[in-house]
Amino acid sequence: MSLTFASLVVTTALSANLPLVVRTYDAVGVSPRTLEQAHASAALALAAAGIRPIWRPCHAAGCISRPKAHEIDIRIVNATGLSPQGSLGFATVDIVQHAGTMATVYVDRVDALAVQTVVERGWLLGWAMAHEIGHLILGTTNHAPFGLMRATWTVTELRRGLPLDWMFSARESAEMRRRLSEEVLDLSHEDTKLTKAHEEAQWPSVGSVIQ
Ligand SMILES: [Zn+2]
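Above: query sequence and zinc ion SMILES. Below: predicted holo structure tokens.
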């Protein structure tokens, strides 16, 4: 992550006033330093969209409850043989209600891509988390042609460190703020059907797929 990006986001971060509780389940045991980097990386992207994440590790009691409005869950796991090939993660989105509260990130794939691209592991993990958070808040598995919500993250993009590659668009940011303001993330009712996960950001030879 470049200082340029950090500086650029500082300005917009001042208006990041919509809180979002992010409950994290770390099943792998990511180091505190990497988690700290990931939180900073994701927070910068979200701050530029006017959202202030409140990180809540879920090894503590109380995270077994269903997420409330303005709360989402992110699981940090290693990929398995059942994980979609090339995917860095996925978000479970209710495609009927256009909302979601849980996402998963494959940290072992993030690590491998970080090594390949010489990007800090924590920064990349944070971008993957922010991307999935974007899906949950926007309530869609769709992707954008540019920016953080694009489907495929190429090695070239990762190596060039262009700040705009890791930011939400103005339109996405406005929609996320609108939806958060309306508390549309509340899916705590029993009859909600989590219909479909989204598959995006891919990680083939030329890029990484993040779902
Ligand atoms: Zn995606």
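The chain has one domain: 3-186+195-209.
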